[in-house]
UniProtKB/TrEMBL annotation:
Record domain Histone deacetylase complex subunit SAP30 Sin3 binding: where: 93-145
Protein known as: Histone deacetylase complex subunit SAP30 Sin3 binding domain-containing protein
Gene Ontology BP terms: regulation of DNA-templated transcription
Domain Histone deacetylase complex subunit SAP30 zinc-finger: 18-78
Native organism: Acyrthosiphon pisum
Compartments it resides in: Nucleus
Gene3D superfamilies assigned to the protein according to its UniProt record, in alphabetical order: 6.10.160.20
One example GO MF annotation: transcription coregulator activity
Superkingdom field: Eukaryota
UniProt key word Ion transport: no
Ranges in a coiled coil: none
Amino acid sequence: MNQNGFSTGEEDSRGPLDKICCLQEDGFRCQRQAGTASYSKKIRNTVRQLKLYLDAVARHTYICDHHKSMIQSARTLKPSSQVEAPEIDFSQLKMNMLRRYKKYFKVKTEPNLNKAQMAETSVSHFKTIPVNEKEALTFFIYTIKTNGTKLDQKK
Ligand SMILES: [Zn+2]
């Protein structure tokens, strides 16, 4: 799209004002530097919940890293309140939980995977599951996370 960097140069001439986060907090435009994450419909509800607003004069929708992580953690904390499919961060799960997931769903993997690979495999498996089942799954993951030791003792 950018030919010889021409359009990029144009944006640069607008000055530093456009390089800051596009969100407003407590009625003031955030002064932090905008990152690579941008505001989208997907995060609209979370942004509202956090009492953040898209600045009307912002010419872009990039948000700063501070607000990005704020939105991200708000989304992970309340997966059930989200309309869209819940998301599970498999990389946050312990190895024994990943193994349990694998066993439960009979996920086929290569032998001797490390934790990152196990998480990756579980994520790809999780994505193949229909949304309504994902709701139940989120609960399942929650259960193995909180009652993990109890389940181990039963055997
Ligand atoms: Zn910000």
